[in-house]
Design brief:
Helix content: over 70%
Subcellular location: Cell membrane
Pfam family, one: T2SSF
Protein name: Type II secretion system F family protein
Shape: flat
Oligomer: single chain
Main location: membrane
Distance between the termini: 78 Å
Organism: Nocardioides bigeumensis
Structural class: mainly alpha
């Protein structure tokens, strides 16, 4: 095939892609009939305001997912069948504080895998120019890159969970002390919780806001804190929620329980800091043993070795 034919094919392909994207964006920008009509129908519940009538959207809102939505959803279903573990993923999403479904995460995993696949494919094409016989190894490399991208998004989710739990542990002693002060001043547990949530921010404050919302919808205080203990992945926060639930049920002094919980978290943080310092001390010995010590020995013995060389006949 000549250069002219190749240019025509590539131009046709690029033009088709631009037309598909433009058509999809035009359709995506149109206002849905339900969005235009339902606000004026006061006798019917609005879509999205009621959880049972919420519009299900599996793919994230982006141009890529808008254009390639069905293939991405099919690939996400395939990843779900291969990897499984939807319950574990759902729990980690809750612990990470992400407002996503398991299917949304699977789509992101597919997109990460496709990005890694594209990078490996580009490198393979560059390599094929100099070594045309490396087709099989290039295909294996692209497949491995796709798998690494899929697993990399899962690992990133685990790192998000760990980072959020660290932030919660950092916020916990302060919020527990504020709750204890409010309760000791004579406020009820619900009023103290409302005061703390309104005057604080952060991950733990949002979790306490969910507890407060559950209490205001009629759920008992003990049951709401039991729910916090069930969905959190931090043992200290779970013990705090269980302690508050027991204190409310049995009438024990809540302020003392909160002070004790805050003290326990601070002590646990102090122990964790000491353990981290002990581990870092070992890593600090690596440059001393492998860099500073050999240089010191070289400076000590090099003049003697040079002198022996001069004195030897």
């Amino acid at each position: 095939m000549t250069t002219t034919i190749w240019g025509a094919l590539l131009g046709a392909l690029a033009g088709t892609g631009v037309l598909v994207v433009a058509a999809r964006l035009r359709e995506h920008g149109r206002t849905r009939m339900a969005t235009r009509v339902l606000p004026y129908v006061r006798d019917l519940p609005r879509i999205g305001a009621t959880p049972a009538l919420a519009v299900a959207t599996a793919a994230p809102v982006s141009v890529v997912s808008g254009v390639f939505g069905p293939p991405l959803r099919s690939a996400a279903d395939a990843v779900e069948r291969v990897l499984g573990g939807a319950t574990s993923v759902r729990r980690r999403l809750d612990r990470a504080g992400l407002d996503k479904t398991v299917h949304d995460l699977r789509i992101e995993q597919v997109m990460w895998g496709l990005a890694a696949f594209a990078a490996a494919a580009v490198w393979s094409l560059v390599r094929a120019v100099s070594d045309p016989s490396s087709l099989v190894s290039s295909l294996l490399l692209c497949a491995a890159a796709f798998a690494c991208g899929v697993l990399g998004r899962d690992h990133h989710l685990s790192s998000q969970v760990a980072a959020r739990e660290r932030r919660i542990l950092q916020e916990f002693p302060t919020l527990a002390e504020l709750l204890a002060l409010a309760v000791a001043a004579g406020e009820s547990p619900v009023a103290a919780l409302d005061r703390v949530v309104r005057r604080s921010g952060g991950e733990l404050s949002r979790e306490l806001g969910r507890v407060l919302a559950a209490i205001r919808t009629g759920e008992p205080v003990a049951a709401a804190f039991d729910g916090l203990a069930a969905r959190t992945g931090i043992a200290l926060v779970a013990r705090f929620a269980e302690g508050v639930a027991v204190a409310v049920e049995r009438g024990t002094p809540l302020a003392e329980v909160l002070h004790a919980q805050a003290a326990d978290v601070r002590e646990a943080g102090r122990r964790g800091l000491i353990e981290a310092a002990a581990r870092k001390e070992v890593f600090m010995m690596v440059p001393v043993v492998f860099l500073v010590l050999p240089v010191t020995i070289l400076f000590a013995f090099w003049p003697g070795a040079v002198g022996i060389g001069f004195s030897t006949p």
